[in-house]
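Extended Data, record Agmatine deiminase
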Amino acid sequence: MSDASWRLPAEWEPQSAVLIAWPHAGTDWHSRLAEVESTYAALAAAVTRFEPLLVVTADAAVRARAQALLRAAGAEETRLRFVQLPYDDTWLRDSGPITLLGSDGRCELLDFRFTGWGGKFGAERDDALVDGLVRAGIFGQARHRRIDWALEGGAIESDGRGSVLTTWRCLHQRHPQSARSEIETMLRESLHARHVLWLEHGYLEGDDTDAHIDTLARFAPGDAIVFQSCEDDADPHHAELARMAEELAALRTFDGRPYTLHALPWPRPILDEGRRLAASYANYLIVNGAVLVPAYGDAADEAAARIIAAAHPDRTVVPIPCRPLIWQNGSLHCITMQLPAGLV
């Protein structure tokens, strides 16, 4: 049974900061470091227009390099804060804290086990990241709760009112011995959810997260969902994403109403040495007063930005060049974690 005094906020609620980890030569970005740093610098400049940015760096040399690049990109230096910690990679959506808000204004940091997306990659240092941030004093008096159960932030979406959206493909892969009812009970108890919505369909070729929801469908204000569609019936994604769209149309809010749906356009296939990359417009980031939207250098970029803007009215839309990110199978939302107001 969920506790009504705690809840998982929606991303569009007020934030105290955004959290990132700077890429460096010791991460998987090493062979294309300059390219991906340009995206991180653009992201940082955009975020600091609207709120603080907390940057994790591996050592003093990485911090100095990041500071120089951020200064050159025009990031607002008074809104930058650095903390030095070890990490395996920079996908902080999945290794960073999932924060609950209490009705009395308290914050609780949920520190789920991070397994490198089901054991695909080494993740020992990433799994210790939240504890390291807590020990560094970043989160003040917020309660820290370690949960020995695999869950990544990119696998769940919250509307801030007790509804959680996720995919069966991902959570079944993480917990193959568990029945759906057991997984749902864990989500309800740990996230204080009262309504768990499952998608059976939807995937992106080149995605190694096993269909994280943040690459496919996102809650938006006013009982809405923004989702990645595929209009090209010759594309191998077409049938699967069409079935996902049908599932979304059948979902109901906790009060029994259908969701307003916003379908995102489909970019042309982006290949890297013959490998298709997972380019999703659904992987956008909401910050205070703005929404940062992935741009892939595709004709569909502008239409995607307009649709996301319509779903998140009264926010400035800022495109971020994300083509370098998808080389490593993620995008804008995947490398960030928003920190709710009151946490930092």
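Summary. The CA atoms of residues 183 and 284 lie 27 Å apart.
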